[in-house]
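Researcher: Excuse me, tokens okay?
***
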Amino acid sequence: MAQTMAERLFSRNNLAGKPVRAGDFVDARIDGAMCHYHAGDPMHDMPIEAGFKDGLPRVWDRDRVYVLLDHHQPTLTQKLADENALIRRVVERLGIRCFHDSEPGIAHQMMLDYGLARPGELIVGNDSHTLGYGSVNAGATGITRGDMFYALLYGELWFQVPESVRVVLDGHQPAYPIAKDIILTLAGRHGDDFAQNMSIEYAGTLVPQLSIDSRMCLSTHGVEVGAKFALFEADEATHRFVKARTDRHYETLAADPGARYAREIRLDVNEMPFVVARPHQFGNVAPVEEARGVRIQQAQIGSCANGRYEDIEIAARMLEKHKVAKGVRFIISPASQQVYLRCLKAGLIEKLIEAGAQVITPGCGVCQPRVGFLSDGEVCITATTRNFKGRKGSPRAEIYLGGPLTVTAAAVAGEIADPREVFDGL
């Protein structure tokens, strides 16, 4: 029978050894488990509550559990420092071999930086943006800490095989990133629940033109439109990226011709305007023209959605001939140390600082109320993940989401503006 990527993934990993269809319940083998700064809950606190005196007694595979102390490095509070110290002791006791400690960055970017997410694998993580590994053809999804406790012990978990929505992207990639505009446009046109409890499969003539950075943006944002997976098929770009980072064998995942989809959505990016998501919802999307002239006090580029090299490069390129507007705080946070180092070697950081931007430690703080708080009445435009009320501090502040080029244009103009009116030659 013809299968979608999700159906093929769960058929391959089905412990019963039988093919499955959307809607089926399945006990599935896990290929990898990612735990970040909340690892103490499934590894220590929950096991103790369940009756294991010293915490988790074992993990099913010490080479397939990945612990990355991300989000808040260096630690910002005594509580976080104590939690990290506990995780270090647990990791040592359990003999977990992949442990990234005291390394600023975002776990999702680091998973790809170090080749820990590979095509065709089923990977779970205790973070909602785990879907981002779909950019390299991995079936990845976020799970609860209770589910992680079980998965760490047994290397398996039950799932309901999701239905799939096929998103066909056509058109040409311009000389700047457009992935954020794509996902916002999709959410604006079809609702920020268009993939609720479903698996997204990206296809179309644009896909081979998309960088892995752009694919990561689209896969990561799958959760913002309700998806369980957000998958790209593997191509030459995928293989180059993955093989440069790991020599582990992998088996790619692809849909069959004639696979049945619950829905198909098409988007021609050649006809897509620059867009923003207005406060306070991801799907509250409009062409940038409709928000034009809104004064801003803060602009940001970063997070697991848009903290990668291409996002920072476009800002540095545009700022070669411009300065950040007076009164605007332009905050840029690379997604990982690896991304930061690449930006440094390319000379991007110098350009950004000379133009008036602030470059901060890699991590999740730029996306949360951890770094760059907003005061009452302030407006921020950001290429991060979410814009709900209070996401950056004051519930009386306003947050707009936009692509890195739109954010940079606003930082230069001091107000939301069409990038084509701020920068020449786009």
Q: What stands out?
A: The chain has two domains: 5-267, 274-422.
